Amino acid sequence: MPASRGGADMEAGDCGAGILDLNEVLSRAEVGILHRDLALNVLAVNDHYCRLVGRTPDELAGLPMHIFTHPDDAARSLALHERQFAKGEPFQIEKRYQRPDGSVSWCIVNVSFVCDAAGRPTSTVTVALDVTKRREAEEELRESEEHYRNTVELAPQIAWTASPSGQIEEVSPRWAVITGMKPLEALGSGWQKALHDDDIEPTLEAWTHALRMGTPVDVEYRLWTPDAGYRWFRARAAARRDEQGQIVRWYGTLEDVNDRVLAERGLRESEERFRLAAEAAGLGIWDYDRLTGRREWSDELKIMLGLPRSAKPDLATALALIVPEDRPKLRNLAQRVQSGETDPRFDVTITMHRADTGEKRYMQTSGWSVQAATGRLERVLVTIRDITEEHTAEQRIRWAATHDALTGVPNRSHFSEKLEGAIARAREADTQIALILFDVDNLKQTNDTIGHDAGDRLLTIFAERLKAFSGEAGGIGRLGGDEFAIFLEHRDEAQMLAVARDILQRLHQPFEYDGGAVDCQSTAGCSILPRDADNAANLLKCADIALYAGKADCRGSLSIFDPAMRTILDRRTSMLRLARAALRDDRIMPFYQPKVCLLDERVVGFEALLRWTETGGDIEPPGSIAAAFEDLNLATAIGERMLDQVCRDIARWRAEGLDVGSVAFNLSPAEFRRDDLFDRIMSRLHQDRIPTSLLELEITESVFLGHDASAVARTLQAFHREGVRIALDDFGTGFASLTHLQSFPVDVIKIDRSFVSDVAARPGNAAIVKAVIGLARDLSMDVVAEGIETRQQADHLRQQGCTFGQGFWFGPAMPRDEVAELLRANRRDRASRGCL
Asked: What is the per-residue pLDDT for 93?
C-alpha cells in the first residue's frame, strides 16, 4: 500500500495494529486517539479519548463529529474537515469537545487521513491533546489583566508613581480625562503645568519636604480641567523602601475633593454669618471641638452669665452657676457629647443664677452636632438664649390656659385632669368620689336686668364660696358659662352627700351689689363613683343628667343621679333623631290655624303651626320633637323648611285670588343665634314677591333671655322697619314682660291659653286678661287671645275689647288644601251676604 498523504509510511493493516499497540501508552500520556472509517465505524480508540468526549466506543460508532463538538466550534471544525478531506491533507485545530453532561474539554486536535492506492481517504485518524488547564490559566490571566486595567482606568483617583528623587515615572490614563494632558506630558515635572499659579509654591514646598524627610505627603491644590476650570485635588503619596531602608519608589494617588473643599469653605462662611447673626440676636455661643477638646464661649454668652471676659470656658464654671436640680441635665448632656452619643439636634431649658448679681434666670439651650462622613462626632455648637421674660409670660399663659379668667378656678380641661387623678387615687385607696355639678340659676336674668357687671360678680361670689370648700373637696372648676363643678373624696357616701347639700345651702345666701340684694341660687346634680360610673367621662355624664333632671323638676335643690333619669336624656336624643329623619325625608310641613276677628268672626289670617308625619303617616305635633328647637343647626334647618313652605303657600293662594290675610310664623330662640336671620327671611319674601305686611313673626320672651338682647333688638327693629309685624307669644307667663314691651318693637300681644281657658270662671284670669287688653290698647298694639274653645270664652273676650282670637272654637289647624277651601267658602258666604 502506498504511503498516505498524511505522511504515514505504512499499510492500512499495519496502521490499525500500530495504533492499537499505542493505546495504553497514549492514554497514560493523556493523548486521545480515534481511528474511524468513512462509515464512522470505530476501528480503534483509546480510553483517554473516550474520557475527553464523554462517550464509550460503542456510542462513538456512527456518531457524527459535530455531535460531540461544542456548538460554538462545530461549524468551523466541520468546514475545515471537509476542505482538508477533499485534498486528503492532514490539519490541526484547537476546539472544545462537549460531553453529554454539558462539561467541556479544550483540545488541540490533529486529523490525518489513511488513503488507498488512488490517494482517496479510506479512514480518519484523530489525535487529541487535552489543553483545558492551559486555556483556563490563560483565561484567568486575561481576566486579571482586564480587571487591573478597569480598576486603574475607571477608578476616580489618579494613580501615579515617582522616582526616589520625585520625578513622575508613571501616571494612570485618568490623568488625561481629568486634565486634558497626555500622561507622557505629566512625567518628570510636567504635571506642574496643570497647577494653579497660587498653589505651585506651597505644593512644591510640601513635596520637597517629603522627599527630604522620606515622610508621606498629603497636600491639596488646584488643577486645570477643560470642562470646569480649576478644581481642588488632594495628592497623597508614601515611599516604598528596600531591605536596607532606601527609598525605591514613591506611590501616590490624586483625588478630586473640589466639592468637599467648597462645602468646607461655605461652612466656614456660614459659621461666620451665624456668629454675627447670633450676636445681633443676643444669643450666646458655646463651641466645642471634640477632636481637639477646644471649648470657646462668645463674649455675649459671658455677659449673659454675668462672667468676666477672662472667665475660663469649661464645664465646671457653667455647673457652678446652674441651680442644683438642673445640674444633672447639663452634666448628662456633656457626658453624651464626650461619648459621641448626642442627637443631631437637642434643646434643654436650664435655670441658673448670674455670677455677678445672683439673679435667677432661665436659659434656653439649643445645640447642633456635626458628624464626619464616618458618623463620628466632631463638633458641637450650642446657642444660649435668656428666656426669663418669656418663661414668666409662659407661666401666666399656662395658668390662663388651665383656669377661668373671671373666677380664677380651673377650667373644664384642667378640672377633668384633676378628676382623672382623683379617680386613680380612689381606686388605689378603695374610696368613693362624689361629683357635683352646679348651675347658677337666673344668670341671664341678672345680666339683663341688673347688668353684666352684676352677672360677673355673681359668678365670682359663687366661685369664692366653692373655694371655701376646697379643703374638703378634691377640686373645683368652672365648666361653662353658668356651670361649676366640685368633687369630694371620701369612703362614706352619706357623708359626701351631706357635705354637698351643705355647700348648696351656703351658696344660696344672697349677696349685696350696688345697694341691693342679688339672689345666688343654684341647682345641683350629683353622681357617685364607682356606683354610677367607673371613669371621669361617664361620671360627668351622670352628674349632667342629674342636673338636667333637677333643672326640669326641682330647681334650687340637689338631685342625685338615678338610672331612671337616663330616660329624660334618651327622650331628648330620640327627639333629635326623629327631627333629623323628618328633615331628611321632607316630612315637616305647616298646618294653619285660622285667626278671626271676634266682632264678626271672619277669618283675618292664620298661624302657621309645625306638624310632621311619622313614617306610617300619622300627623305629629311639634312637642314630640321639642328638643330640636334648642339645637342651633336643627332649629335653623326646621325654620328654613317651614319658611319655604309658608312662603310658597302664600304665593299660591295670592295667585288664586284668595285673601289669606297675614300669616304668623314662629321663630325659635335658637334661630336668633344666627346673624343671617333677617337677610334669610327678607330674601325669601322678595323671591316669592310677598308683601312684608302678610308675614307676622311670633317670638317668646325666651328669645330675649337666651341671646344678646341688643342683637335681638337690632334684628327685630330691622324687621319692623320693613313692615314685618312682631307678635309676642304666651304673654304673661314669662319674666319682665313689661320691660320687653318697652325695649322691643312689638306689634301684637298674644294672651296665653292658660289665662283664656278659665277666663269666665276665674276672676283672677279675667282680671289679667282685662289688664292685658287695656295695656295693648294704650300701647296701640293688637291683642290675640289663644286657645278659645267655647262660645262663652269668645263672648267674654269680645266684651272685654279683645280684637282677635284663635282656637278650636273657630277651627283647628289644617293642611294647606283645606285653607284654600275655607277661604273660598268664606268668599262665597260674604258674596251671598253682599259683603264683597
From this structure: 93
